[in-house]
Fold:
Amino acid sequence: MKCSFCEHELTAEMLRDEGCGACAGGCRKIHCPYCGQENSVVPGIFDRLFKSDRPDEGKGSKS
Amino acid sequence: MSVLHKEDGSDRKIVLVGCPNVGKSVVFNSLTGAYTTVSNYPGTSVEVSRGHCQIAGERYQVLDTPGMYSLLPITEEERVGRRILFEEDPFVVLHVVDARNLERMLPMTIQLIEAGLPVMLLINIIDEAERIGMHIDIALLDEKLGIPVVGAAIGRKRGLGELRQAIASYQPRPATFAYAADLEKDIQRIAGLMRGRYRLAARSLALLLMQRDEELQELMRAGEGENAAAVAETVNAVVFERRVDLHLRISLERKRICKGLLAGVISQRAGGGPAFAERLSALTMNPWTGIPLLLAVLYFGLYKFVGGFGAGTVVDLLEGAIFEENLNPWAIAWFERHVPWYWLRELVVGEYGLFTLGVRYAVAIVLPIVGTFFIAFAMIEDSGYFPRLAMLVDRVFKRLGLNGRAVIPMVLGFGCDTMATVVTRTLETVRERILATLLLALVIPCSAQMGVILALLSGVPGALAVWVVTLTGIFLLVGLLAARIVPGERPMFYMEIPPMRLPQPRNVLVKTLTRMQWYFLEIFPLFMIASVLLWAGKLSGALDWLVGALQPVMGLLGLPHETAAAFIFGFFRRDFGAAGLYDLQTNGLLDPVQLTVAAVTLTLFVPCVAQFLIMKKERGWRVALIIFALVTTLAFGAGWALNRLLLVTGMPG
Structure:
């Protein structure tokens, strides 16, 4: 997944990080460590339903 | 990270580095074949792949590092990537870059070379670059950089032979790139003091120390011993002297070096794809063309699509045709027939009922507006416009004590101010965070509030213009004054601009659905809670008392007393208040002047409960209460002044 502001890659490690606790009902967002943008974490169901053909749209820490 | 490199006498090592998604893993697999191991790097949870290959009879170990953008690490992956570079004693560091983004990725090649590493550059995905009309003169870049450069499309097996040959015949060639004289002097001041032996070159270490790299500060202390204090003192002096723009200067210098290196190296075929995107990108950042383009984005994206289509067409259909004409009368009639208890009927289908007010507001009024806003936002976001907007408004924001970085919370504020207030923590200084929090609480309407207000005002000639001019004026005036009053530093803003592109339908859809899910999970319950509180307030008489208490204020603003309820709703949630205003207008209770005054005052009026609580959490009680008092005073003060002015001038008609 890419940051929607600066387009740096957000890695699987970051996605597993705990949220800041500000959101009721648990964290579904991830702050980009490079620019601070708050990105919504794509729920698994949407990810599976609309799977990208492009390799650079997937999640993961590896290139 | 160790001071000296390890000498374990094993195979020669090829270390692959580069940004994510440049094809490093494809290069790794092409070199190593099937027999590879993946394990966590010692002491971390970051995975590193290792494999082996034979090139010209020599056995090599190949390491695939996690993606990294710079030698100055921000994430755990980047820290591990850097440790591998300096602890694994590589024979070759193969920097893999995407040919299409060579200009963005070359600064890291410069960093690797100036660190003294044995660098080779692999320009990958060159077939895609050629397809969009780019031509890269590999030989010229090789000559200018002073390191071996290979052009390839490894995924298509193109250039693999040349790569293997280049590795087999690799000979380190030292190269130096000069920064501007003043910066060079500071680098030498620090590098010249260092006596320790390090795996990375002294000038590279000096640059990273200047950028406050904590891990390397430890390394320097261990390597310098008694000399460490003198080095640290010089670093601190340089950092203090250059506190305003150090990172910016270093980034701009590297950009300048790369521009020089790429001059004559990249050529673009006429009519190729990126030329238009690059031209458009430049136009969005130039104030003369960028501001009209911004106005066009706001007009079509917000006014026409969110305000006209979402808040007009879709709301009319859902709220008018479905809820008001069918669902609500049916639900009310059913409850009146089957439920004898007044309090329960009121709770579900009464004036502030869970269904008749809560569900109707959430589903029929606010949802279509936030839904269309999320679509417009995702399209703009996916095109790469926002970083360009940040560069465009940087100059204006600097006068407000902020910089282009504050575009992120400000733009997010148009989605939800509460969420945006959390994001202000990413701004560099406390001063910026306070100023951004104040402006968010005061002037930035959330998407639903703005959508409803746009829809309401667009039917009254001149009202929308008065609303826009008043809010923009207050935004600039309060920002300018606050920037002079609130003390603190003014950091520079610099960011790499990602490429501009056509929004991908899949990305727009996924982002919109994800945000809609967030809306239902987090915002919908708040509407229900607000309905219950209003119901309890009505039954206990507390709501009447509150509306009564606000009546003199409404009178000063020239508004009917019923408007007080919309302001009370607004404190639960901004969009809830806007929906209340929508109800008043559709019931014919407001004339054009009253509608304009109510819209301006309600937009400026206190942040909702959730935003106030987040303000308190992020900025503390003192700042939160000061902002609360300031915003309330300014909102009603501006409403009163606007009412007087509009009555005198007779606008809007």
Notes: Chain B has 28 helices and nine strands. Confidence is low (pLDDT under 50) at residues 2-8 of chain B. Residues 134 and 268 of chain B are 5 Å apart (CA to CA). Chain B touches chain A through 55 residues (CB under 8 Å).
